[in-house]
Amino acid sequence: MNAIPYPPPQQYDFTFIDLFAGIGGFRLAFQNAGGKSLFSSEWDRFAQQTYAVNFGEIPYGDIRKIDANEIPSHDVLCAGFPCQPFSLAGVSKKNSLGKKHGFEDETQGTLFFDIKRILDAKRPKAFMLENVKNLTSHDKGRTFEVIRRTLEEELGYVINWKVVDGAAWVPQHRERIFIVGYDPAQVEITREEIHIPDQPEAGYRRRELKDIILDEAADHTLGSGTWETLKRHKAHHAKAGNGFGYGIITLPIKKGQVTRTISARYHKDGAEILIEQPGNRPRRLTVSEAMQLQGYDPETFIFPVSKTQAYRQIGNSVAWPAVASCAREMARVLKERTR
Question: What is the residue-level pLDDT of the chain in tens, covering all 339 positions?
Fold first, then answer.
């Protein structure tokens, strides 16, 4: 059997757990920053396969069925959690931000509740959460207010947050909110002192898109039907004054160029990121090209799943080098400020 590409480190500075683990973007980032994972959870069986091949362990399944007391004690909780609408049923707009109805009613039924109960039970020194940038504006800001209040006022963590564009690290425009928190009983820090990097460290060299995109990949050319549908769709929206439609990378690719955001639906038609092919219809990215837009190394990272599943997993993942910069900053804080 081949060696595991990313085995647990023998020596480490801190421990972490990897919730909603996907294919392991957070795992890579925090291992890279000197951490060791003690526990992982991911419900999708195909993502579990990819995670297992690369890290040597199969993540636990449905987080809702995991007893928090069975999770090992850890220094950092990591979670790129799904953003389902928060249930505020029966709570009027006027009262939705008050404490009258209690936090349980507002977070129960969402996967954020599982993060909350694990933080409450295990009290790690720190956490890093990641979500779509629109989390702050969802439901006119009420969703994020529930999250903020739960973390700060009920659980007592000192937190800060920032929308970070992965394009500073990889040639892909990818804006995500990073939420970082510390337990003030264990780490001496104020909100103003919580730094969330929005640029790489000095000396980091971002890959150029032109060095990632292959000269040709004939078997990825769009079918004529798909291409005609995409063109009609774009023309329809252009007529309506909207900017919706496919995005195409024209050749030659310029220095510093970045792509649109790749999503989990990329396998369907490739519309977000198409590559121009002179004299032919455009093509989709290859799996190798797509994974590099998230910072994964095609020489070492393995996808044991179908092409469709690989695209879906890549689109659901994080631009892990951006997370790694934040992880290194958190490792520094834990080293210097733990009480």
Answer: 458 999 999 999 999 999 999 999 999 999 999 999 999 999 999 999 999 999 999 999 999 999 999 999 999 999 998 866 554 433 434 344 554 444 455 666 688 999 999 999 999 999 999 999 988 888 888 889 989 999 999 999 999 999 999 999 999 999 999 999 999 999 999 999 999 999 999 999 999 999 999 999 989 999 999 999 999 988 888 777 776 779 999 999 999 999 999 999 999 999 999 999 999 999 999 999 999 999 999 999 999 999 999 999 999 999 999 999 999 999 999 999 998
The fold of 14-206+318-337 is Rossmann fold (3.40.50)
Enzyme catalytic residues: 83
Q: Is the pTM of this model over 0.90?
A: yes
Instruction: Enumerate the CATH 3.40.50.150 domain ranges in the chain, comma separated.
Output: 14-206+318-337
The residue among 50, 246, 261 whose CA lies nearest residue 170 is: 261
Q: CATH number for the 209-315 domain, one of 3.90.120.10, 3.40.50.300, 3.30.565.10, 1.10.357.10?
A: 3.90.120.10
Positive/negative CA dihedral, 211, 290, 164, 21: negative
CATH 3.90.120.10 range(s) for the chain read 209-315
DSSP state of 100: T
CA distance 185 to 202: 32
Phi, psi of 32, deg, nearest 5 = -60, -25
